[in-house]
Amino acid sequence: MAKVAILIAELKRGLKNHLAYPVQAVCEVIMVISVAIVVPSLLEGSFPKGLLGFTIDKPEKIVALTTVFIALIGLQIVHRVVKEESDLGTLEQLYLAPFGLSSLIIFRFVADTIRIMPIILIVVGIVSRNQGISWTLVLIPTIVFPMNIGMLGIGFLLGSLTLIAKRTGFIPNLTSLALLPLALSPPNKLPQIIGVVGSVIPFAHGIRLIEIILGNAPFSTWKLGFWKLCVLSGLWVTLGILCFTKAESIARHKGLLGSY
């Protein structure tokens, strides 16, 4: 019950901010959807006309770019929470709390992912050409959530540097930029080194599965890829939490935990 209460509290925290500044919240949603629709089409040399009743040429690229915004949560939330709690002076207390800093990060990650998920579903509804749109809207969150759990694992690894080295926020930001080529370029057109790196990044696996779904492929064609994604994400988040917990212990031992 305590875990459910914490998750609900985190959901309320974000919603309270949206309700306090509704114009900002609406503008952020419009910005994300607009960027996701416009950028891939401009790169293809055509302006999107899907909202006017015409077909959008690359719906999978539009959804992939929207998925970047969700992946940013996993990559950046660890650094952001460490900074916020350091500014509040509560990192030491969280280290000794029953749930701990890593648990707080996970709850906040889940809450933030739930809050932004409707945006990607709106985009899918706008651009999808599939007849079974209801089934597509069910499958997309099924892929996006485990994908972002893997990105959270990478975020924990980057957050370990924040605990020890301090002021390393530029590293998650730079890492986030690296997702754009994976989202906007076909795998066979990427340099080999990027393709190799992408093969172990949950985000790359997630958007490939989304492309298969939007292409109306049969269930059997993406089932194996989905399980690979789950295993890969599980490995990343396990490794990330272990490294973060170790870094947290080292930072506390050296007296670095309470500073940013």
In short:
This protein is mainly α and 260 residues long. The chain is 79% helix and 0% strand.
Low-confidence stretches: 45-55
Number of strands: 0
How many separate domains? 1
Fraction of helical residues: over 70%
Structural class: mainly alpha
- End-to-end separation: 32 Å
Largest sheet: none
Report the β-strand fraction as a percent range.
Answer: under 5%
Assembly state (oligomeric): single chain
Mean pLDDT: 75
Radius of gyration: 19 Å
User: How do the helices and strands follow one another from N- to C-terminus?
Assistant: HHHHHHHHHHH
What characteristic shape results from the CA principal axes? globular
How many individual helices?
11
Write the layout of secondary structure elements.
Layout: H1 2-20, H2 22-43, H3 59-88, H4 91-96, H5 100-127, H6 133-165, H7 170-177, H8 179-184, H9 192-198, H10 202-214, H11 220-253
Helix pairs in contact: 1-2, 1-5, 2-3, 2-5, 3-5, 3-6, 3-7, 3-10, 5-6, 6-10, 6-11, 10-11
Task: Explain this structure.
The structure is a single chain. The protein is an all-alpha fold and 260 residues long. Helices cover 79% and strands 0% of the residues. It has eleven helices and no strands. α3 (59-88) runs parallel beside α6, α5 packs antiparallel against α6 (133-165) and α6 (133-165) runs parallel beside α11 (220-253).
